[in-house]
Write a structure and sequence with these properties.
The chain is an alpha/beta fold. It is about 40% helix and about 15% strand. The structure holds zinc ion.
């Protein structure tokens, strides 16, 4: 299927599935694989496989073409990039789009070159989306990418300090713990490259996430005119000890002002 045909089909799907709560208005492109599979695309080879630089799933030109066609039709553009070379390409594609009506996002963001950390910060309108639970350090990742890249992976705190719009999500329905936002906030604080502040972590799960989805006009914060979507917790996650954040329990959940969980 050509990129033109794919975007025409996306326009059909966008209308077919549109409801009050579902918007199919994002193009997701996949630049590379994962560090676990040694398919994340790297500038320097894997530490334990000196001939392996990872694999390219979509090249820069193909991504740029599809992204530009979709953006002109009002779609947001979201690129999966994990290795530093894939992140580099994703940034080039998104910066190249200029100003668009949708949003521009890089998902996962495990490894970054120094120059690209500066490039995304200088740009200002590219969302840095990740799952903070994955920042947790492990021996397999260390062996795969070596000490220097291992220490610098998931630069969540650095991005927040540089005012990059960071958003958090679970990415997976296979790994139940990643749906726990309080565990995610904890991991971001203890396992990222440098500790972010709690307010930035809360915003990454709420208002900034809503902005990435262009839903901040209706949700993401509690204020007049927005849908009353919120949870009641058993503790103050902004004040408790970091270790206690992990144990946070939701007592009640409200959606559009109605209690949908709790008693
Ligand atoms: Zn992905």
């Amino acid at each position: 299927m050509s990129a033109e045909d794919a975007v025409s089909y996306m326009k059909v799907l966008r209308e077919k599935y549109r409801t009050k709560h579902v918007c199919c208005d994002t193009l997701k492109l996949i630049a590379d694989g994962t560090v676990e599979e040694h398919t994340a695309l790297l500038f320097s080879a894997y530490a334990d496989e000196p001939d392996n630089y990872g694999s390219e799933l979509l090249g820069e030109e193909d991504m740029a073409r599809a992204a530009s066609l979709a953006a002109k039709e009002g779609f947001s553009v979201h690129i999966h990039a994990i290795g530093d070379k894939a992140v580099n390409r994703a940034l080039t594609v998104l910066v190249g789009l200029g100003s668009i009506s949708g949003t521009k996002t890089i998902a996962h963001n495990q490894l970054y070159s120094k120059d690209d950390k500066q490039r995304i910060a200088a740009n200002g309108d590219i969302f840095f989306q990740t799952t903070p639970h994955w920042a947790k350090r492990d021996a397999f990742t260390l062996q795969s990418i070596g000490q220097e890249r291992y220490e610098a992976q998931f630069p969540i705190g650095t991005m927040m300090k540089r005012q990059v719009p960071v958003t958090f999500g679970s990415d997976s329905c296979l790994e139940e713990r990643t749906a726990n936002a309080f565990l995610g906030m904890y991991e971001a604080i203890v396992s990222g490259d440098t500790a972010p502040d709690r307010e930035s972590c809360l915003l990454a799960y709420t208002l900034r996430g809503a902005r990435q989805l262009k839903a901040d006009g209706v949700t993401g914060s509690i204020c007049e005119g927005k849908s009353a979507d919120f949870v009641v917790l058993d503790r103050d996650v902004m004040q408790c000890a970091p270790e206690e954040m992990k144990e946070t329990t939701v007592l009640r959940t409200y959606f559009e002002g109605e209690m949908v969980y709790g008693e």
